[in-house]
Design brief:
By secondary structure, this protein is mainly beta. It has a single domain, classed as Rieske [2Fe-2S] iron-sulphur domain (Rieske Iron-sulfur Protein, 3-layer Sandwich), CATH 2.102.10.10. It is 9% helix and 30% strand. The strands form 3 sheets. It has a 5-stranded mixed beta sheet with strand order 1-3-4-5-10, with no helix packed on it. Strands 6-7-8-9 form a 4-stranded antiparallel beta sheet, with no helix packed on it. A 3-stranded antiparallel beta sheet has the order 2-12-11, with no helix packed on it. A hairpin with a 4-residue loop joins strand 8 and strand 9. 26% of the residues are buried. The chain binds FE2/S2 (inorganic) cluster (FES). The site of FE2/S2 (inorganic) cluster has 12 residues, from loops.
Length: 144
């Protein structure tokens, strides 16, 4: 019987071999259960996060929307995918996040590259623990 970890390893291997379109990994959001408003991720269980172009879509239980976790190569950022123009959901397109509604474009840090959006995507504090676990604070209400 295959485990979830086996499936993720196979999916990563297929993606690395070019047998799966990179965008396919973004279709399904990983359900996670926050504890005290924080999500903890073991990168070993999420091979899609590997490398500077890696990313993962999360659907935290009890949270109103998804959260995108993107690897920068040096660490991770966690962003709301809700465009700050009029609220459409942005899509990850390589080094950018693009809004399909009116064309706003953001960098992988959530900063606006092209409007009409004027404000960056909402971001959540991320830290990596000494044992390599990614911890995302979903309780943060900072701007935007
Ligand atoms: S809602 Fe994203 S550009 Fe308008």
């Amino acid at each position: 019987m295959r485990t979830r970890r086996d499936f993720l390893k196979i999916a990563a291997a297929l993606a690395a071999a070019g047998l799966v379109a990179p965008g396919c990994a973004s279709v399904v959001a990983a359900r996670v259960r926050p504890v005290d408003g924080r999500v903890r991720l073991d990168p070993a269980e999420h091979p899609g996060l590997a490398g500077s172009g890696g990313f993962l879509r999360l659907q935290p239980d009890g949270f109103s929307g998804q959260v995108y976790v993107l690897s920068t190569g040096e660490g991770y950022v966690a962003l709301s995918p809700i465009c700050t123009h009029l609220g459409c959901t942005v899509e990850i397109q390589g080094a950018r996040l693009e809004c399909p509604c009116h064309g706003s474009t953001y960098d992988r840090g959530g900063q606006v590259l092209r409007g009409p959006a004027e404000r960056p995507l909402r971001s959540f504090p991320v830290r990596t623990t000494p044992d390599g676990i990614i911890e995302i604070d979903l309780t943060w209400e900072g701007a935007p």
